[in-house]
Amino acid sequence: MTSVLYDVPGPRAIARNRILGVITVVVVLAILGFILWRLWATGQFTAEKWSAFTYTNVWVQIGIATLNTLAAFGAAAVGALIVGFVLAIGRLSDHAWLRRPVGAVVEVLRAVPVLVFMFLLYYGLPVIGVKMDPYWAVVIALIAYNGSVLAEVIRAGVESLPKGQSEAGYAIGLRKAGVMRLILLPQAIRAMMPVIIAQLVVTLKDTALGYIITYEELLFYARYIGSQSTYGSPIVPATIIVGTIYILLCLILSYIAYRVERRLRRTHRTVITVDLLDENITTTRAVAVQAGLDSIGGSEGTGGGLRG
Amino acid sequence: MGIITDNLDLWGEMIVGTLLLFFAGGTLALILGTIVGAMRVSPIPIARGVGAFYVNTVRNTPLTLVFFAFAFALPPLLGLRLTGAVSITLAICALGIYTATYVAETIRSGINTVPVGQAEAARAIGLTFGQVMRFVVLPQAFRSVIPPMMSVFIALLKNTTVAAGFSIANLGSVRAYLSERGENQFVAILWVMAIFVALVLLLSWAQQTFERRWKVAR
Fold it and tell me: What's the pTM?
């Protein structure tokens, strides 16, 4: 096996790699050991610190907090997909009077940090007389941001299709709407599915921002239970538990994205490779979309999948 | 405009806070990300595994959770007293550790865009490892890494606002300070949004310029 970086190792390289491997193990063990030592030294393993989590009620509250997180995510995901489609179609329009303003809106929404948008909805709007629940502030801000990112993803997907696709559509007598709905969008969505799901992982991660505007999600509850001195202020155990829940939720969604991508690559190999060989710019843009746009909760191996 | 000119001291302080988080967090992310990226493409299986574990775990962690852990869970663990400097350092570490995963992935996918044949041809004409890297692989990888790397830094710039939720002064927290001074929060937040739009447009313009100039001809 050879890679871009390394030739097949000879005896000296093998010996050196072994030494580096041992060093890696030692460093990792040292870091883990340090963490465990600090956890132990500050008494995080004592029964008192974990006593709060022996009550059913605490776990019921954690369950409710998880549901709150998922409720915000669900509404934001559905909304972002809808808004994403609408904005993408607007941006792909032939009419400049529609395309330009929609483009400007997408650019602005993508440039504004989600948290600042939440601040605007939660703290800013009451000034002009609109009072808003933290839940809706979280959901609307997430829809606005992720919707505009998804719009760009879908647009990139449509534009990466070979020109012959739409030309063939027009040739068989379809109108613009028909070409878009029957020919371009299905292919674009299929090609961009992993990126779309990856963006949904970002949405799920960003629901945690709701903590800052007092939305009662998981972190909010962790902070609450962690400051209860009756249970010995178990902020460290609370962070560990809530963090595990968050990471598990995101990992599940990321795993789905990974599976979808693998299935796509297996069943539609020709379609995708043709796309990427067709136009090199598309590759760079797709990499940028995947690797960059923002928090990119991308799935494993997307970069490798895009090798042109 | 009054809201800005009357509170210039505050806005200045907040912009400095944002820039500090951005540059210090970015530097940390670049260093850590390059190390992890190198681990992920190294020929040592255990290093690859550790790198993959780090990237997959941290990328699936909300940034707010990372900040939360650094702001609330870490100080009691390490016995830190929360002075201003300590809080800012913790915030920079949180941003750096989170962003490093994206830096690592960008570097890895940049190296993956270089066709294997390029390196094989270079080895075939007798170049050493250092020469293969210096003359063939890295110049090509570097060019395809720059545009997505700029996107990572744009995201980092926007992510600095999360620090506002953990009482670190930056543009995201302007709102709270201004409302204490009795200013209109709504207008303040609109100004913050305008500043971010301007900064992000500036960075994406730079990104497009680099991308045009350094496109790999294949």
Answer: 0.86
